Each structure stands twice: as structure tokens, then as C-alpha cells.
Amino acid sequence: MEPKYVSREMRDYIIEMGAETITWCMQCGLCTALCPWRLVPGETSEKFSIRHMLRLGQMGMEGFEDETVLFACSTCGMCVKNCPRGVKIIDNVRAMRASIVGGGVVPANLRPILGSAHANGNPWAGPREKRTAWQEGLDVPKFGPDTEYFLFVCCHSCYDPRSTKIAKSIVKLLKAAGVSFGVIGEEESCCGESMRKLGDEELFQKLAQSNIELFNQKGVKKIITTSPHCYWTFTQEYPALGGEWEVIHYTQLLAKLLEEGKLKFSKEVPKKKIAYHDPCYLGRHSNIYNDPRKLLASVPGVELIELDRARELSLCCAGGGGRIWAEVPMGERFGELRIIDASEKNAEMLTTACPYCMNMLTDACTSLNKQESLEITELSEVLAEAL
Ligand code: SF4
Ligand code: SF4
Q1: Does domain 263-385 have CATH number 3.40.50?
Q2: Does residue 33 line the site of ligand 1, with CB under 6 A?
Q3: How high is the pLDDT of residue 2?
Q4: Residue whose CA lies nearest to ligand 1 atom number 7
Q5: Is the pTM of this model over 0.90?
Q6: Separation between Cα atoms, residue 250 and residue 353, nearest integer Å
Q7: Where are the domains of the chain?
Q8: What 3-state DSSP class applies to 332?
Q9: For ligand 2, is residue 53 a contact (CB within 6 Å)?
Q10: Cα 22 to ligand 2 centre (Å)
Q11: For a substitution probing ligand 2, which of 25, 28, 30, 37 has the most ligand atoms within 8 Å of its CB?
Q12: For ligand 1, is residue 28 a contact (CB within 6 Å)?
């Protein structure tokens, strides 16, 4: 048997980058068994085991040779929720990635993404001056000293043509409920969530600092986020950097407005049998399960369908942790399993409350050629249609 070497220097670096719990792992393998990678076939699935990854981290990356394995985790949180030792697995993965990315080794597919976030403040290759292009013809209010909420629109919904419909729908809903809100616009930068998960700590710090300074300088006190990823980052990561505001995901605010009678859905929507997909960053990571369901159930005529893998057990769409930019062959996508889940329940529509999930589920639906029988939407679109 070959002796195993530990790079103590690298292990210390990984621990310093946030993997404080990496040594707690007792290699029981429960995380590997629960990981969605076990549910799909293919090369990455065969190579990726989170238990092995953690061992690699414990060894100070000694023997590391395959970046497809290091960047395979979608940070869904299923393993973290169930680890008997309380190992902060995602933080460990992030720190291990940082040890490679910080050393200048960035996987080829991620270089343009990180480059764009450095240059434009967003990972979607969108010029800064186009950040507000989605607002055309909408009369979106500007955030000012008398505005209650700052609406932070996820970069995905600023630049991706399909996703801009989410931003537009949320504006329509907030206006209908008489909410005092406004946007800042071109000076905003990406929240940096995916950049940090990809291991580019320096870029994350740069984006976060620029946002914190901007929001504070504008007098922001309350933020509405359109994406669960921004919500999670603002609530979980920005406070340690000096960014402390009252942050609310749009589904939480709309559910509250519905309860107070300030928001009403009066129109029936064409498709009635609607299944809800819990996004990992709204559900498992942020414990928001009921508000999206309350909203959906309040639309006249809607039959809310629960998928078998729901709430804490929700199946990841595979778009987190930077995986939204990964090229995954058809037949190996977690999202395809989600389409099958919804189809087996005879759902006419699968809706979710995250732009990344919407993106991944739409791709999966197309790759299974199910677009005719199953429509993929973001919840705000359904709600705006029911106003
Ligand atoms: S479940 Fe926790 S203790 Fe068990 S192998 Fe995974 S990280 Fe280690
Ligand atoms: S966070 Fe999700 S994808 Fe990553 S290792 Fe854990 S279960 Fe697997």
C-alpha cells in the first residue's frame, strides 16, 4: 500500500479559508449516499464522491488532479442538513476550490464568467449600462430617501431575456400592492454568491464591498430580493462584512401583503394543476417553504401539487455552486429527474421561486422534449398573471 502524504501547509490554508470543520469528518459516507449525484448516470457521477472530496481536503489536496470533481458540487445542502458530525460541507468545498482558484487555476469554462464579474460587475457578460434595460416601458421607481424598500434584481433577471420576465412580474406585483420600492440601477453589482462558491474569494469581496458601500451611501434600510441566492448572501454573508439591512425575499413580502389584504389575485390562470419546486437556497438554506405555497394556493382555481421530494427533501435543480455554467450531457441532469417527478403527478405546470431553478428546469424540460405537456415558470409570473 502506497503511503499517503498530507500537505500540512495547504491543509492549514484551506482551514483558514473557511474549512474549520473539515477535520470533524469521520468518513461515514452518509453525505455521499444522499447526494443527488447518486441519482444520475455518467462520468461525473462515477467520479464524484463528497466523502472522498472531504478526505482530499483533510490531506491538504494531496493527490488532487481532477477539476471536474472539485467543481461538481451544486451546494444543494442535502448533505449538510444530514451530516451526523455537523460538518459544514459546503464551506469546506468552497475553501478547497479557493485553494485552487486562488493559485490561478481556473477551469476553462469559468474564466469568462469570473472575467465578466470582474469587468462588468455581473457574470452574464452584460455591460453595466444595460443593467436596467429590462425596465424599458415599465416606469420602475428609483430608490430615494423616502423609499421604503430597495428592490435588488438578480443579475440573471437583468440580462437573461427569459429571466427579465421575473423582474417585470415582481415590479407589477409590488405596484399592485402599493409597496414603496425603488431600484438603484447601473451602479449595483452581482451579490457574488456564485463567485464565492466557485472559490474566487477576492472577487466576492470586491463585489460585496462595492454593494455595501453603495447601499449604505444611498440610505438603504430594507431590501427585497428577487432571487434566493441574493437573499441568502445578503442575510448570511454580508453582515460579517458590514452590510446589515432588513432583507426579505419577494415571496415573503407578497405572502404578508396577501394576509393583510393588500394583494389580491382575482383572475384564473389557464393552467390549473401546478407543482411547486422548492429551490435549495429558499428552502433548505433559508427555511422558506410556506410563503410560496400560500401565494400559489391563493390563485383562483389553482390545484397545488406537492412533489414526492418536497420541502427539506427537495431535489436540487443543479444550478447552484456555479453549476449553472456547467455543460452537463443530456441524461445526466438533476433537472430531468424533476421534470419526471412533475410529469408523474400529471402537473401541467412546474413553478419555482428562483431564476436559476427556472433556467435549469426549462433546459431539462426541453432536453426531455416535454415542453408541450409541462410549462416551466417562476412563481412571480403566475402571480402577476392572476392580478
Ligand atoms: S456525513 Fe459528515 S461525517 Fe459522514 S462522511 Fe459526510 S461529512 Fe463526513
Ligand atoms: S451540497 Fe448537494 S451536491 Fe454538494 S455534495 Fe452535498 S448533497 Fe452533493
Answers
A1: yes
A2: no
A3: 55
A4: 25
A5: yes
A6: 9
A7: 8-101, 110-257, 263-385
A8: coil
A9: no
A10: 15
A11: 37
A12: yes
Q: Which residues of the chain have pLDDT under 70?
A: 1-4
Contact call for residues 246 and 221 (beta carbons, < 8 A): yes
Cell 442535502 belongs to 78
51 lines ligand 1 (CB under 6 A): yes
Set of cell numbers at residue 91: 464551506
Determine the 3-state secondary structure of 183 from DSSP.
Answer: strand
Report CA 165 to chain centroid distance, whole Å: 17
Q: Which residue out of 27, 58, 96 has the highest number of ligand 1 atoms within 8 Å of its CB and is therefore the one to mutate? A: 27
CATH topology of domain 8-101: Fumarate Reductase Iron-sulfur Protein; Chain B, domain 2 (1.10.1060)
- Residue to mutate, 22, 52, 74, ligand 2, most ligand atoms under 8 Å from C-beta: 74
235 alpha carbon – ligand 1 mean position (Å): 26
Ligand nearest to the CA of 94: 2
Instruction: Write the pLDDT tens digit of every residue in 373-387.
Output: 999 999 999 999 999
Asked if the domains at 110-257 and 263-385 fall in one CATH topology, the answer is yes
pLDDT reported for residue 1: 46
Compute the CA torsion angle 259, 262, 268, 274 (nearest 10 deg).
-40
Which ligand minimizes its atom distance to the CA of 52? 1
Cα→Cα distances 169→218, 247, 278, 288, 298, Å: 25, 19, 19, 20, 17
Tens digit of each residue's pLDDT (9 = 90 or more) over 55-77: 999 999 988 888 889 999 999 99
Q: Which amino acid is at 202?
A: E
Cβ 85 under 6 angstroms from ligand 1:
yes
* CATH number for the domain whose boundaries are 110-257: 3.40.50
How many angstroms separate the CA atoms of 281 and 235, rounded? 12
Specify the DSSP element, H or E, that contains 359: helix 355-367
Q: Name the amino acid, one letter, at 118.
A: H
The answer to whether the CB of 72 is under 6 A from ligand 2 is no
Q: How many CB atoms neighbour CB 255 within 10 A?
A: 20
